[in-house]
Amino acid sequence: MSLGTPRWWYQRRSGPMGATRLLLTPLSWVWAGVTAWKIAVSKPVDPGAPVICVGNLTMGGTGKTPIVRALMAHITALGVPVHGLSRGYGGRLPGPVEVDPERHTAQDVGDEPLLLALEGPVWVARDRAEGAAEAVISGASIIVMDDGHQNGSVAKALSLVVVDGETRDGEWPFGGGGVFPAGPMREPLKAGLARADAVVLLMPGDLGRPDPELLKLFGATPVLVARLEPAQSPPRGRQLGFAGVGKPWKVERSLRAAGCELIDFAAFPDHFAYDEATLQALHARALDAGAGLVTTEKDWVRLPPHWRGRVVAWPVRARFVDPSAVTALLKPVLPP
Questions:
Q1: What gap in Å lies between CA 8 and CA 25, rounded to an integer?
Q2: pTM of whole model > 0.85?
């Protein structure tokens, strides 16, 4: 059974969960040690084309997939054949397999690859090195790998880490700095930043400038700022929202900021597999309140086909604030 992301992970101060953090700290030492060992002993394989890794320092909810989509679109606009690469979390196919949105479902390849395939060819492979090799054989001049900052199986020409720029109401992208399960970190912040060529700071669309204190944490690591913005207005009228993503409370906040008349919001674990009983319960709640149902694109592709006409998918897109800075960062690794 999958569990939702603990919101206290992302509270900067320990607060009422301080004792829980303390009890979980020994387990976090084990997690951090195993992660560091795996990175140290890995032998990266060069697939024959530059690989840009877009990864996380935390367990999820940073907006990594929208950044991968934006980066693939940016590279395509530069005239370079780009393919995406994903592990395909939540999918049953081990791969390597090229994603076909007309044939594959989220149960086959995972939800995120289906969205990435809207930008260009995308490969799903449990073995990322094999997936990258297939992408090159199929014509990729450059590969954008979704996730894998802690995976050393593929040689990376450029490593980017996406950081959530939300710092309101005591929220902090790294919480108290604890490594899983005592906190949201996949590895200690200093270790993760040491292998990063740049940070992509993804700002909520309704938040102003990045927090100066947060920017200081990145030191000399270059920072690209992007904004997560609605691709269209949310549906009109009363709505019951729901989402199964890394930080579902961010979806609720974004819907309200965009003017959605939410009567309630239901949060589910990341990559949640919606069954008939759950959807019927959501539908009944909405019906009683005279409301529609709205969710994210990532959730919508996981819905059974017969439910998709009854739920509105609300799309958002990541937009780089300074596209020229992105081009300058990419230039040394782009093929001539």
A1: 15
A2: yes
Structure tokens at 168: 């309101």
Instruction: Find the helix or strand (DSSP H, E) in which 256 lies.
Output: helix 248-257
β partners of residue 131: none
Distances (CA, A) of 136 to 72, 74, 93: 15, 19, 20
Cβ neighbors of 27 (< 8 A, separation 6 or more) are: 181, 182
Q: How far is CA 330 from the centre of its chain?
A: 20
Question: Which residue in 280, 282, 244 sits closest to 263, CA to CA?
Answer: 282
The strand pair at 261-267 and 238-243 is best described as: parallel
Backbone angles phi, psi at 278, to 5 degrees: -65, -45
Which of 104, 119, 34, 26 has its CA nearest to residue 68?
Answer: 119
Q: How far is CA 30 from the centre of its chain?
A: 25
Alpha carbons within 13 A on the beta-carbon side of 143 = 33
pLDDT digits (tens, 9 = 90+) for 135-181: 999 999 999 999 999 999 999 999 999 999 999 888 899 998 999 99
Block residue for tokens 């780089």? 320
d(CA 83, CA 213): 36
Phi-psi region of 147 (alpha: psi -120 to 50; beta: other; left: phi over 0): left
Looking up tokens 């958002």 gives 316
Single-letter code of the amino acid located at 335: P
| pLDDT classification of 3: cutoffs 50, 70, 90 | low
Which helix H or strand E contains 201, and what residues bound it?
strand 198-204
Three state DSSP letters for 6-64: CHHHHECCCHHHHHHHHHHHHHHHHHHHHHHHHHHHCCCECCCCCEEEEEECECCCCCH
What does the pLDDT look like over 96-123, one tens digit per residue? 999 999 999 999 999 999 999 999 999 9
Contacts of 289 (CB under 8 A, 6+ apart): 238, 240, 263, 264
